[in-house]
Design goal:
The chain is α+β, with helices and mostly antiparallel strands. It has 3 helices and 4 strands. A hairpin with a 5-residue loop joins strand 3 and strand 4.
Length: 93
């Protein structure tokens, strides 16, 4: 399982940062995802041009992170969707 985030990775969840919230939810569901930070920031759109987020675009059809790729190859994009998925798919104990 891999989760793509911005440079904040798994930080700032308590402050409401989208990437941190998504990673926290996946961990609370019992997973230990590989975290891959991608370059560029939403508030600075010119930092996301070109091939900087090519892999994210190919996986999800958009430039935004977080994006979760499950071990089954399912692609889940967006904090709200990832949090919901994590709640619905707890890791087997």
């Amino acid at each position: 399982m891999k989760i793509y985030t911005c440079g904040q990775r798994d930080k700032q969840a308590s402050l409401g940062h989208p990437c941190g919230k998504a990673v926290k939810a996946v961990r609370e569901a019992g997973y230990e995802p590989e975290i891959e930070a991608v370059a560029g920031y939403r508030m600075l759109p010119w930092t996301r041009r070109g091939d900087v987020r090519k892999e994210i675009r190919e996986l999800s059809g958009q430039d935004d992170v977080p994006v979760l790729v499950t071990d089954d190859g399912e692609v889940i994009a967006g904090t709200t969707t990832i949090v919901a998925w994590a709640k619905e798919h707890p890791a087997a104990a």
